[in-house]
Structures
1.
Amino acid sequence: MSSPLRNDRFLRALRREPVDHTPVWLMRQAGRYLPEYLAVRREAGSFLAMAKNPEIACEVTLQPLRRFELDAAILFSDILTIPDAMGLGLYFVEGEGPKFERPVRSVGDVDRLAVPDMAAELGYVTDAVSLIRRELDGAVPLIGFSGSPWTLACYMVEGGGSKNFSHVKSLALNEPAAMHRLLDVITDSVIAYLSAQRAAGAQALQVFDTWGGVLSPTMYREFSLRYLQRIAAELERGDGDARTPLILFGKGNGAYVEELAATGTEGVGVDWTIDLDEAARRARGRVALQGNLDPATLYGNPDAIRREVGRVLDAYRDGNGGSREGHVFNLGHGMSPDMNPDHVKVLVDAVHELSAR
Ligand code: CP3
């Protein structure tokens, strides 16, 4: 099944080994900013129909790699597949984002949840992983992913996106034991899900803690970090060069880089609100760092994009004792549908050009 990997920059950077150029991939690199994605979506009918069909998921995973010299592919799927498999009934309303038909609102709702059967409920995801590995044929590594327990709990309890997280924060404040039972069953599911993706061929795994940053530091440590620690400790990842690296990404996690680096993860992904030199000093060489260009930089012109790419590359080097080792270039969060694909090419090429040895 596995051809030798022709571009291992991304995996080498996660091991903090020297690379010829800093590797780059972009969160949400597949999606609505690409006309070829919109064409496939028109055929398929909806995002969920795309994500649940392994051939289509494979096709849209590969689309950005045909345009740009990206150093990794990321599985086309969504973090909300786990709650969907738990029976919450995921659907999307145009312009409003994800929603659940049956949100988790009471202690009784929490106690009815169970870890989904991976093969029966999420086989479409692992089928997509195997197919993408076969189609990539060793061109670049494939990243599998999951939402973090806290971030999944936010969607499950709110029933969709939220501005103030009133329901999930109330549950955490009023029923902390039930909140911890909820986070435990999600964590067990995340570990099983990431393990299944790894078994199907994922060569790195990323956890998206999109909403950890909405918590106070005390609540972050209790309701988000604790479960990220459990994932990093319990997820089977193998040894040596065969080890499947883990990246913990979080929006608003700049204050917790030391604590995240101490979990045993291989990589920490940060957003754009912390200077990467400061993040690198806090990481003290214990982990690789991923990030952290402001996604809105893509609205700038090519000169501005090159300038900002150079600034991020140099900030990492300055905070990392003068070396570029251990940096995976990325945005600080995902791309938006109104971004210009030509600007993405400028960004990707600038990373390789400006970081060349
Ligand atoms: O990075 C990639 O290219 C891989 C694919 C990917 C998607 N979602 C595809 C997608 C990944 C890694 C995700 C993760 C995800 N999904 C997160 C965590 C990362 C982050 O952005 O913070 C979250 C919070 C979600 C939940 C979710 N799914 C939202 C908020 C939306 C957008 C809804 C909207 O209408 O804007 C989705 C849908 C979604 N997931 C799309 C894509 C390409 C848009 C689908 C479409 O309308 O075509």
Note: The chain is about 50% helix and 10% strand.
2.
Amino acid sequence: MAEEYDYNSMWEGLGMDVQAHEGLLAAVGGMYQSMFLTQQNRPESTSYLDFVATNLHSGRIREMLDARNEGTTKKVIGTFCLYVPEEIITAAGAVEVGLCAGADWAPQEAEKYVPRNTCPLIKGFMGFKLARVCPYIESADLVVGENTCDGKKKAYEQFGQLKPTFVMDVPHVRNEDTRQQWRHEVRRLAERIQQETGQKITVDSLRAAIKLANNKRRALQRLDATRAADPVPISGLDSLLTVQAAFMDDSARLTNAINRMADECEKRVTAGTGVAPKGAKRILYTGTPMAVPNWKLFNIIEKAGGVVVGEECCTGSRYYKDLVDETGETLDELYDAIADRYLNIQCAIFTPNEGRKEDVIRMAREQHADGILDCSLQFCTIYDMESFGMEKAAEEAGIPYLHLTTDYSGEDEGQLKTRIEAFLEMI
Ligand code: BJ8
């Protein structure tokens, strides 16, 4: 990446507040340094993650803008949720970027649009937009929201005043009627995206987009499988960042990099090389998603001597565990295959949502977890509610369980540390 490139002008051109953005970059850079670069025995191939972290707001944005200027990529489409099928966006020649915010920013500004007791993820993306510090939000030509939790659903009404926003209607129960409704909704998205990009989705472009996304998922599955070993070849922090990167980096580059990480981790497993000592307490994470730079919890667990061996969440296994069937021969068959795969995501907006509990227990066993840590972001009622059933499922499976609630501030770090250390000691 050419050092001389004038990124300030690029950010200014996007309408960003360059000075405030500098403050954000400094804060995130400091966190990266103290959380990631202090880890011992990282696989060498995680240098890709350092590359991503360095280029996140600079080189990657430049690359997307250059592609748009050259006409090779027409539009940038921002999303907030795993239910929005990336295949549709890619097939219409656009780039999909994840816009969820993992840090508090301009909360006073955000509170002019959403109540104070709103979950930090929602407040974060409102704050990032209002303070003009996120180049992904500013580069997006269109934002796709979704009617999932109440907070997001209502926040998009406000967000839509600030950016062109299209909202998908996600069902909250699974039955034949809602399956048909969701299949229709996927086609409605396809219509809107084609209108935005001016590019028709064809059987070939959609199949190619499905294969591209599936290859990324296969690479992530390979990497994930290596984490069942003791010692664990790669940390939870690096694994989390790998999935977070998937929401922002170019799919083909990311897939190659993850496959290189999986190659190295497979060799490390054979050689018995770990990022944490053999016998380190193994934690399966479940709960609300963690957007960049929300690394707080994993950092506390791993600095306390534990190691995260899996994530049942949208920035974890839900992102990659299921593939889309690639065999469809018509657009309709491919759209249906996409819709059916996405409807199977086990988010707490669904009722009942037994599949999530089954996934958590299965993953805890497969990854040989010593304990389950279930964490909800503050004011996230649906994940908090599900914690009761999750605790019971863990108890029945004989797996130690801890539920925590946190936010994006550093204020509860001491308290979290105490509870996590006690949990690690107990299991
Ligand atoms: S599919 S988990 S990405 S909705 S934490 S904003 S639920 S109050 S993020 Fe999610 Fe899609 Fe579900 Fe995944 Fe609301 Fe809860 Fe906040 Fe949340």
Note: The domain at 15-202 is CATH 3.40.50.11890 (Rossmann fold).
3.
Amino acid sequence: EKGGFPHFMLKEIFEQVNSIYDTIRGRVNAEASEIYLGGISEIIPKMVNAHRIIIIGCGTSWHAGTVGEYIFEEFTRIPVEVEYASEFRYRNPIVDANDIVIAISQSGETADTLAAIKYAKAHGATVIGICNVVGSSIARETDAGVYTHAGPEIGVASTKAFTAQISVLVMMALQIGHRKGTLSDELYKKYIQELYNLPDKVKAILEKNDKIKEIAAIYKDSTNAIYLGRGCQFPVALEGALKLKEISYIHAEGYPAAEMKHGPIALIDENMPVFAIATNDNYYDKIVSNIKEIQSRKGHVIALVNDNDTQVKKLAEHVIEIPETLEYLSPLLNVIPLQLISYHIAVMRGCNVDMPRNLAKSVTVE
Ligand code: M6R
């Protein structure tokens, strides 16, 4: 059942070659440059005219939603708010019939997310689900939805569901942005083409598994770790930190890199590994200076860089090379080495990676 892998988590990390493809296949027509999401086709006009979108979820699904905020705002220019479902449901949020709420959940059974959906619906909002489990409570409760076709996810640590959720958010944002005219025809087409290049790029990252394992061996006894990213890589940093926390029990935090100087940099010393996402984008030069600041305080930098990187390769103690892609698709690739690092560290520490202590696959209680 684990398909020859020692754990479900590793199997599911490797399945991302197919799960991203399965999520876009049949929905993105590269030849015609068309995107069709059957489950929300009737709601698209409402989404195009929306004044605001609220995304809710918990844990990894909230991280995917936060990546979605960057993508939606860039492509559609619609303001997006992302909120933990548990906070949303209890704080008397302002939501009405003009609102589009997108609820993200792998299991479709998360109690807080379900309650938040009921609240939003009761206040007249249109609620769209992004779920992995077909026929789940959230899938049934939402007005419309798009399934992530990731296949069953057994490992408690969510991996392939995360990349499938982002794939759905990308498709939605591309479609709405193109309809609205806030995303150029040229860029729209470029993204559509590139979506189909992702499986090979995922494969290229997975081929680096041995190297990633070697890096994991160096830092397996750490007691803390920091993950840094900017722009849409910031939520990827959060997700990297969550993966490490939940399966290896190492304390880890994700930050937007520029926040370091407002406090967290005080934590940096010779015992601190810092995972820095430094793939090419608008923030590249900024990240380079953040890396220098960490190194001058003796922190150990493990950087994710693109193949054609020039500066960070010379600076960082370790680099993991990632094939280049378009900016808003890069979270789909960058999260993979972070998943693998956590996996290997947890295994080396003797942890039960598929069933970490104190955690359940779906959190059906609040
Ligand atoms: O099934 P859901 O996506 O609603 O679950 C949400 C969280 O409970 C889940 O992502 C959790 O944080 C995972 N353990 C993360 O790996």
Note: Residues 58-61, 105-107, 110, 113, 156-158, 246, 359, 362-363 surround 5-amino-5-deoxy-1-O-phosphono-D-mannitol (CB under 6 Å).
